[in-house]
Amino acid sequence: MKKMRERLGRIQADAGLARSHGGTSSDLHDQDDDISRRETWSDFREYIVGREEDREAVVSALLRHTEKELSVISIHGFGGLGKTTLARLAFNAEPVIRAFDCRVWIHVSMKYDLIKIGKSILSKLEANCSGDLDHLKTQLKGLLKDKTFLIVLDDIWEEDPHELLKLMDFLNVGAKGSMVLVTTRYEKIAINMDPVLCHRLESLSDGECWDLFKETAFVSQAKEARLQHIGRDIVKKCKGVPLAVRSLAFVLKWKEGVDEWEDIRDSHLWELEEKQDISFESVLPSLKLSFQHMSATLKLCFVYCSVFPKGSYIDKDLLIQQWIALGFIRLNEAFHPERRGEEYVKQLLGMSFLQISTTQTPISRKCIEAPHVFRLHDLVYDLARSLAMVDLLFLDTESNLKVSSTHSDCRYAVLTNCNPTTLRNNMMRKLRALHVNEWKQEKIPNKIFSTKFLRVLNLSGCSLLVLPSCIKQLKLLRYLDASGMQDQTLNHLSSLQNLQALKLSGSLIGALPHDMGSLEKLRYLNLSGCSNLLVLPESLCSLGKLQYLDMSNCSAIKELPPHFGNLFSLSTLDLSSCCDLTKLPESLGSLQKLRVLDLSNCWKLDALSDSFAKLDHLKGLNLSCCYQLKELPELFGNLETLDLSDCHKLQKLPESISGLKNLKVLILSDCWELTVLPESFGNLKQLQYLDLSSSQISALPESVSELVNLEHMNISWCTDLHNLPGNYGNLVKLEELNMSYIGNGNVNIPKGIAEMSNLKILLADGLINWSWENEEDIVFFNALSSSRSSFFFTGENKPSDLSIKDNTLQVGDLGRVQNLAEVEELQLSKRRQLRSLIVSGHGYGTGTELAQELVPQEAVLEKLQPPRTLERFELLGCTISTFPSWMTDIASFLPNLAHLELRHLETCGCLPPLGQLPKLHMLVISDMPHIKEVNQEFSGGARPFQKLRNIVIENMPNLEKWHTDATVSGNDVEFMFPVLHHVKIHKCPKLRFQPFLPRSVSLEIYRSNQVLSSGVRSNGHLYYMPTIRVLIDSCTLSSDGLMGLQSLTSLKFLGVRHCKGLDNWRGSIAMLTSLKSLDIAMSSVPECLGGVTSLECLKIHNCLVNYNTLEQVLHLTALVDLSLCCSHPTKLVNDQEVNWLTNMASCLKNLVNLELDNFIGCDRLPPLGCLEKLRSLTLRQMPDLKTVHQDISGGSNCLPMLQTLKIGSMPNLERWTTAHAPAAHAAHSAQSALSV
């Protein structure tokens, strides 16, 4: 006890840490803690000063092409300078992301272990990571062979040159151009790695430090003026170390008094370190000062972080739950302890004691979610360990620690494969937290479970076969992590009555205990990845204090208990990838405290109950990949994040979406049936991130230009979007705009784009024709979106003339190359800035003598290998019989390719395997007459064409078969095109797909008679899209083709032009139960048209229309738009036309638009006044019509909604009689347009 008091005295004197003997008593808790001064997660976007040149140097080195198999770049400098930050900036740079096939970030730290490094890399690549070093290298080589990779090894301490050589040999498994980026404190290590590619990171200047300091420390100009002179003195003491500057700046941000600032400037801690060099051996005084000014509770929370291994990643939610379990954060009805924990995390993050993990989301999506994973800076970790002292015990297989009596006072222990005999009972006596990281023994010693004061038990490194029965002795246990447990039952769980947090992720449990509800104090429950779990016990619904429930990847769960809404304290619910979940209980709306709800990848969920509207406090809602979801309930005003990506059947957004005043993130990508946004869309004033990519949006509302806080906007691959109305100059905060491949290449430049002062990234690939209003806009657009050059092998220009900054290049006249050295000089593969390439073979010599002197185009093309960064490639008019080697393995050489066109390759008889291109969106194959068949080899392997949205096949006169199935293994079959949006097939008269026609949202067929005879695949997998729109032009429809059409039960629009055979389509046309619009022109008309009762729009133009056809139309009572035009004037007898018009007016009462053309037998118009909804009426070519009498009104109420009346080509019409004045005025009061 005396030693304990002496130690506490020393800690208090040095750092102000007030701690009682028990470590959890209430006097440790500040009542105030300045928690009210809350930061938002967006406030922690890293502000970086003075490193732009360093960043450019490292990025340039990474992009520099090299013939070496593996290159190493090192960043070295002492601790706290920002080596990891610099590496992260380079790692996440857009050109670097595009340049490498895969990127991996590994933290190495002081304890060097090559096997552990290998396993870490493999785990990041989601591969099996077991075995010895040779086996690991074999696995790594199998994954990375022929791929360029970037591996970051952060914080290497190993100085032995032989060990470093072994490391490089282990990593030398990829393609030429692969890179390793190393950060280290030692220059010697950097030189041993590669003496040439070393980048020394220097201290910041005083001016740069001051810029960094004042960005955080001063919240007002008045404060800066009053305290600037003291602040500059403090900054000088930080010796140019960004970590020191950031830490103190955040502490001083909340201190207003001159005395407080002077106390920090004049602290004796600066003197203690004055004579020491800044290195890894000295803990910077600024960090001690920051620690000294923490609240007592925050100090405990920080010191506890030392239980995690150095350099490891720390999950925010689990850390907070452990803080709560240890009593650092009290359970109190007055505040939410988890939110208090988040505030502590924010404070540690603000002081740079915690750092956001590099494995977080890319920068363009940072605003979507709060950071979730952190790590301690090494210097900060050393500080935490020094403060923990004998409170913390690490035992592992390599530890030579001789356990002594002093360890009987330890509060926290970390065991890693240690010998059980080293564990003594007296060690466990006062233990509060125990982490078992790795344990190869069959059982855990019972003495662990005799620790009566244990609050936190982490067994995640054990993969227990069963939960030991003696665990019930841990009466005070509040936190249990038994992830990966192999037992299917949890027999002793209910005895842990004080349990507050339980993590069972990845366990094999088949059911939870029926008395689960007895754990009345449970606040956190993680069941993620429990794929054997079939049902939840009803007693679970009685956990009234449960606030966090993670059931992600519980793929066997089909429904939730009906009283699920009784979990009234629940704030976070994760049901993502519950693939069998078909519905949610109505009681879900009772979860009034719910803030985050994740339903992503719930494939079978087809509806949300109206009770959703009751979730008033919901801030984050993720419904991505809910493929069956057709509509949303009315939304609620507090949502901040809404993800609806890949909701394939969602047709419209509720009007209430414009009322989401706090919405910051909206993702609508791949919503295939979504065509319009509400006009009030501009009311979303707080919106920062908008993604509409690959949706069917045909127009943006003008109010989009009013989204003044928008920072990222993605409208790429919206192929129906041609017009961008409004003035986009108001979007002054927009940083990134992606408008690639919109409008099929035809679009107007956003007006006011030149006024977007913050726009840094403009992506406009695939735009062919564009228009603009202001000259300034097009100048700005061209300057930011592209830089283009052309090179032709004519001898008039030289490869050296090409700028290295050009991102678009056209190379022509391959047929005029006389020397391959001229081609090699272009060095295309080294031009990593290149994003678009057009290669044309036009200009091949015609004379025999000249041809003998020219290099064959196949050899030329072999030398024109593009860089891996290429996103668009067009190969046109080349005389080749086979493709170059880099195209036969194109997925390895061009992994970023999104747009590929192969045109006019008239001597080529095969296609390269394109299915494994991971980013391919658009594919055009045209004018290749030698191709007769496309087989499974086109897929290139399993899961082909995962991103392909658009395919065009045209002018392929001899193409007969296209196999759309790709056999994977055994009887498993995958289809070649799973996610197509648009299929366009023109002039392929012999083409049949086997076994099925590719499914797509839109299908366009022109002069390709056999395509529909291929047969149509049923929906199959849930994410196969329904075919909504089909346009057929100039085809002869066989009976097989008609059967293929009628199987498209989701079809909404059918257009038929210049086709024969449609009159053979009889009663089976009624199978198109979803058809809304039918447009027939210059074709025969189906005989049983009246069977399609779902039709709302019918247009028959220039077709032979007989009386039977007219009678069929009368059965279409849902019609809103009707347009009939007879192409072959045939006079119907016995007033048939007039009789039909009379019946039409009484049968089709929902008509809004009516057009009648070429009714040559009609000599009078019947009463039409009963068409009360009619707004537009067009009458043309009725030569027998002379007079229109007032009885057309059908009474005094003549077409009350009529707004437009058009009359044309009626040579004998003499008079249109209206009713007497009052009635006539009333009858036509709504009319706004008259055209004669």
TrEMBL record:
Residues 307-384 form the Disease resistance protein winged helix domain. Signal peptide: none annotated. GO terms for biological process: defense response. Residues 476-595, 674-768 form the Disease resistance R13L4/SHOC-2-like LRR domain. It comes from the Eukaryota. The keyword Repeat applies. InterPro entries: Apaf_helical (IPR042197), Leu-rich_rpt (IPR001611), Leu-rich_rpt_Cys-con_subtyp (IPR006553), Leu-rich_rpt_typical-subtyp (IPR003591), LRR_dom_sf (IPR032675), LRR_R13L1-DRL21 (IPR056789), LRR_R13L4/SHOC2-like (IPR055414), NB-ARC (IPR002182). Transmembrane segments: none annotated. GO terms for molecular function: ADP binding. Residues 52-221 form the NB-ARC domain. Residues 806-928 form the R13L1/DRL21-like LRR repeat region domain. Pfam families: LRR_1, LRR_14, LRR_R13L1-DRL21, NB-ARC, WHD_DRP. Keywords: Leucine-rich repeat, Plant defense, Repeat. This is NB-ARC domain-containing protein. It comes from Triticum aestivum.
